[in-house]
């Protein structure tokens, strides 16, 4: 379980990215965070794995308090929190498999990782992760030779290779076209449902949020302004989150996937 | 009625910077002062033309290389080549880990960074010639002194170039590896090294190129190789022999550079 207790983050320059946020996310939930750019979505996600330090308050992840956690505790915690990024953050000059194996580093000794001698069991975990996102045939291809959608699936596989209990996704489809966005979101949904991994996704597009968010959390200027089901989040709710009328730019606009293709 | 100024959002043209003119003027003045007899080196144009005549004899001998001398050039030339290879291998090998200590991407601690960059600046500040003088004095005349001088020279060059390349890597993969619970060494090995590896090999090849040239000069102070032979022939004023050495050097440097440029172009 993830619990925010009056968590605040203030950046240098006095920007209040999170203001005394209280939030509880039970195990196995799929939560979509929505809000304008600068509303604090990325900060919220990065507060969970300590990439952004808290200014005050606390975040407790699986019983571990992030406030005052040592470097060692933080590494231990991060080892079971996978993360997916808007810009994929792959090392483009190396193979897909090497990228996914980076998810196994937390369980690999320093000398083994220096030499690149991963244990066969770790290679197996990486291959299975690639199979889960249906891209295993690209294992030995250079990451730079993949399309955006393929690169993001490698990013998901890298996170899965950690065998995480929590998956954080920071705008995972913002650099992708609409059909590819649905493929990636369906991958995340499937992972959440089949493996029971708590999944927290930042999204900008409201229609995507409604389709894939079992629960939607709305942020505005670092404060929680909505917390409820995706079904209950109507136009009025979104107007409230965005603080303005909705425009076409707020919607991805691509047709929702057919039920049949969800099963595929 | 008062005339209303037209509303415009176009900015006024910013004034032209004077720094270029000041710079050029300063450069001209410093040059004039430097050649003046009173303040500087006292450059005497007439004297130069007169002296050129004395060079005629030397020039004639240089244009008539003594090819019988060639067999005596081969062995020292090979030694120069070997000095360059060994020094590049060790120096560039040491430069790789050192450069990760000198980049703010891989060392967030300011104090560590300042110290390691400071040491590198000192290493780089000493010219290769001075290293050779020091090491020849320390280990005696021969190739070992040359190798040690060039090792320091290579660390200075490669660590400088590589640490600046590390400064500029894509930080996305670093964040990703950090988020996965890896330690610093693992981060450097997997998120940074693959990004800079082609550059590193290119810089090492470049360092090797420089070594072949530098080891010639180093031979003058007794650090082994072709430079020593060159110095002896120079002192005997055996210009036809010097000519053979210079031609051989030119060929080997040219060929190595050609191969190196080709390899580097493929890498980056």
Query: What is the overall silhouette of chain B?
Result: extended
Question: What is the structural class of chain B?
Answer: mainly alpha
In N-to-C order, the SSE pattern of chain A is: EEEHEEHEHHHHEHEHEEHH
The helicity of chain B comes to: over 70%
* Quaternary form: heterodimer
Mind telling me the CATH class of the largest domain in chain B? Mainly Alpha
Major sheet of chain B: none
Could you explain the architecture of this structure?
The complex is a heterodimer of chains A (264) and B (268). The C terminus of chain A is likely disordered. With 264 residues, chain A is α/β, with parallel strands linked by helices. Chain A contains 10 helices and 10 strands. In chain A, the strands form 2 sheets. A 6-stranded mixed beta sheet of chain A has the order 6-7-8-3-9-10, sandwiched between helices. Chain A has a 4-stranded antiparallel beta sheet with strand order 2-1-4-5, with helices on one face. Helices cover 35% and strands 23% of the residues of chain A. With 268 residues, chain B is mainly alpha-helical. Chain B folds into 2 domains: 42 residues, no CATH class; 199 residues, MetI-like fold. Chain B is built from 10 helices and no strands. In chain B, helix 8 packs antiparallel against helix 10. The N and C termini of chain B lie far apart (68 Å).
